[in-house]
């Protein structure tokens, strides 16, 4: 398994480069085949004229050149058309397979369990909560992740999976899919769909022409047969390319999922149930062939030569070395009894009260006391090492998942439900930013009412009774859940929400660190949703962005030492030392840092992968130079990493260890 996020991203980029080469080879093979067929039609295949082949080929070079050019143009056009379609993001792929997004008000226990698992893993991974789809008419056990970026990602799960798998097994499957998101596979998989659509295009046209009917359709049918034969070469190449790129990335995703959950049984159990299930992991959707490489299990039943996934037995044995297929029957019998007991317990558990108006209570109701979560005090403080942070970027572990579960399960019920309602997502975000009761809050509420309506402002004001009770570590997670719901709204609503949030952030002309973090993350999410595009790898070097580096390091150093300039300068110098002697900067934090920081983060995102890893190490060193890190510092580090598209879990390993032994605060 690759050692860290940056190495896994490098491998994904290498596979993308391989895809370009293989695609080129496939195109050449198709053009050669088309040329050969054309030569036959021109009579060059006649045995009596073989000796004159070169002369006749030369005399017909224009026809052959035009045919080759048109073939390349057709392939390129089909690939471009499909790629443009995929710019709509992961949700478009899910809907093309018959997926239905889980509605916020769903009372289906399977839906609720799936949503909880996805949200917990998203929080633990440090990425936005993806849209969640269920393929309701698919009885097989399967799942997928699709999207160009984490902000437009979608998770799709079959009805067979949510009904047949236990929570631990479902967790293993979803962790596997999130590893595809974090490893860069999700982007690569969509590229495969777009590019391979071109080299299979001729086969599709051939099938259509072969169905031609009518008196004079003989020539058309023959031409269709020729295209189908040529297209079969493209289909063969497409399947070989998918198999070559996908198999090893499935092993990597399995290993990443185990690292995340720290237990093999869940993922292995899901694979065993696929092996024993009547429908296996087969998809019935007409587009199953196109997406076969991005599924959790083999969705189309390819032969071994074209298989996009390793054999089930090999995947299970990688998780449980002593496994034998002969043990499967006994395991299934034992597991059925356990699943029946678990299902009975879930049915007995009461569903939460999801009625928003009842949770808010009457006007003037008392504000609940701050949430107390076992092991998570109101203010976190812990030791931190730069190397440990680099290991956590894009690499969540079991501790991150457990912490995310604590944060998620302890969210105030009414606030959690409001965050899942698309029309209440904006008021939730606004409530996180509202000032204490007074003139500033009234001005903020007026801004909300002006952009939306008075009812939206009333909801935001009422929700402050719940946001005030949040643990500091729950603020960004609840914002991420609200953003996921916000994506259901029209583009105009998204833009208005971004404008309102910015107005709330600057209302008191004194931007706090949390206000900046929330405002920046929301703007980044909305920009990427409204303008979805494939992420481009940055190429800038550290010396090319020195002013931006200086601003970020100065802010991080100052956050840890707000009243001690000398200590802040020492922290800045410690961070700078991580970047090498080519970077010469001085500690300098301007008063208008909040206006400059956003553009600086956008510029830093243009750094190359190695430079980004060095910058993250430098930021961590500047922040942890005093041997501690608190929630505000962790939020800023996470926001900066998000700007660099290097997702970081919201709570670091050392902080978690320290928190676990710290008594809660009453």
UniProtKB/TrEMBL annotation:
GO molecular function: metal ion binding; metalloendopeptidase activity
GO BP field: proteolysis
Key words of the record: Cell membrane, Hydrolase, Membrane, Metal-binding, Metalloprotease, Protease, Transmembrane, Transmembrane helix, Zinc
InterPro entries named in the record: HtpX_protease, Peptidase_M48
Domain of life of the source: Bacteria
UniProt keyword annotation of ATP-binding present: no
Membrane-spanning ranges: 20-43, 63-81, 192-210, 216-238
Pfam families documented for this protein: Peptidase_M48
Cofactor annotation: Zn(2+)
Lyase is among the record's keywords: no
Domain Peptidase M48: residue ranges: 110-320
Name of this protein: Zn-dependent protease with chaperone function
Organism: Pseudofulvimonas gallinarii
Lineage: Bacteria, Pseudomonadati, Pseudomonadota, Gammaproteobacteria, Lysobacterales
């Amino acid at each position: 398994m690759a050692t860290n996020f940056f190495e896994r991203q490098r491998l994904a980029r290498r596979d993308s480069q391989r895809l370009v080469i293989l695609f080129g080879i496939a195109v050449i093979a198709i053009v050669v085949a088309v040329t050969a067929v054309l030569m036959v039609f021109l009579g060059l295949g006649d045995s009596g004229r073989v000796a004159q082949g070169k002369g006749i080929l030369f005399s017909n070079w224009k026809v052959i050149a035009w045919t080759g050019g048109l073939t390349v143009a057709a392939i390129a056009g089909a690939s471009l058309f499909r790629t443009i379609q995929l710019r709509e993001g992961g949700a478009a792929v899910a809907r093309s397979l018959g997926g239905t997004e889980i509605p916020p008000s769903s009372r289906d226990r399977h839906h609720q369990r799936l949503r909880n698992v996805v949200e917990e893993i998203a929080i633990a991974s440090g990425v936005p909560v993806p849209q969640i789809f269920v393929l309701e008419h698919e009885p097989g056990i399967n799942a997928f992740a699709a999207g160009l970026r984490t902000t437009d990602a979608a998770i799709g799960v079959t009805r067979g999976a949510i009904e047949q798998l236990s929570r631990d097994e479902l967790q293993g499957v979803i962790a596997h899919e999130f590893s595809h998101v974090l490893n860069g596979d999700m982007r690569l998989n969509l590229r495969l769909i777009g590019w391979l659509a071109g080299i299979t295009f001729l086969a599709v046209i051939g099938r259509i022409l072969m169905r031609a009917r009518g008196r004079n359709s003989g020539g058309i049918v023959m031409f269709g047969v020729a295209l189908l034969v040529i297209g079969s070469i493209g289909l063969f190449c497409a399947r070989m390319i998918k198999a070559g790129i996908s198999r090893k990335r499935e092993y990597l995703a399995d290993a990443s999922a185990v690292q995340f959950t720290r237990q093999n049984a869940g993922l292995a159990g899901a694979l065993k149930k696929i092996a024993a299930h009547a429908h296996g992991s087969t998809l019935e959707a007409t587009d199953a062939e196109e997406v076969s490489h991005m599924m959790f299990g083999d969705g189309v039943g390819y032969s071994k030569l074209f298989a996009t996934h390793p054999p089930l037995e090999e995947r299970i044995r990688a998780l449980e070395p002593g496994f034998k297929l002969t043990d499967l029957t006994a395991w299934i019998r034992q597991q059925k009894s356990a699943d029946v007991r678990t299902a009975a317990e879930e049915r007995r558990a009461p569903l939460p009260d999801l009625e928003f108006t009842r949770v808010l209570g009457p006007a003037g109701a008392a504000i609940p006391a701050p949430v107390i979560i076992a092991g998570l005090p109101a203010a976190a403080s812990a030791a931190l090492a730069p190397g440990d942070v680099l290991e956590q970027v894009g690499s969540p572990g079991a501790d991150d998942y457990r912490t995310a579960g604590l944060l998620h399960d302890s969210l105030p019920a009414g606030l959690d439900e409001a965050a899942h309602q698309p029309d209440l997502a904006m008021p939730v975000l606004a409530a996180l930013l509202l000032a204490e009761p007074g003139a500033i809050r009234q001005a903020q509420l007026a801004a909300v009412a002006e952009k939306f309506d008075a009812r939206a402002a009333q909801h935001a004001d009422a929700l402050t009774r719940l946001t005030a009770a949040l643990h500091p570590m729950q603020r960004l997670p609840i914002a991420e859940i609200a953003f996921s719901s916000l994506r259901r709204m029209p583009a105009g609503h998204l833009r208005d929400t971004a404008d309102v949030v910015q107005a709330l952030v600057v209302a008191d002309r004194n931007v706090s660190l949390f206000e900046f973090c929330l405002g920046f993350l929301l703007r980044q999410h909305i920009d990427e949703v409204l303008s979805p595009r494939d992420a481009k790898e940055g190429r800038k070097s550290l010396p090319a962005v020195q002013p931006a580096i200086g601003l970020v390091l100065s802010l991080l150093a100052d956050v840890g030492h707000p009243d001690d300039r000398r200590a802040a300068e020492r922290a800045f110098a410690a961070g700078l030392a991580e970047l090498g002697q080519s970077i010469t900067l001085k500690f300098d934090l301007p008063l208008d840092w909040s206006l400059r920081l956003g553009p600086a983060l956008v510029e830093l995102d243009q750094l190359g992968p190695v430079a980004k890893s060095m910058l993250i190490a430098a930021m961590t060193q500047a922040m942890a130079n005093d041997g501690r890190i608190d929630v505000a510092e962790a939020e800023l580090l996470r926001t900066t990493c998000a700007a660099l598209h290097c997702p970081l879990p919201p709570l670091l390993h050392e902080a978690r260890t320290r928190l676990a032994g710290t008594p809660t605060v009453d």
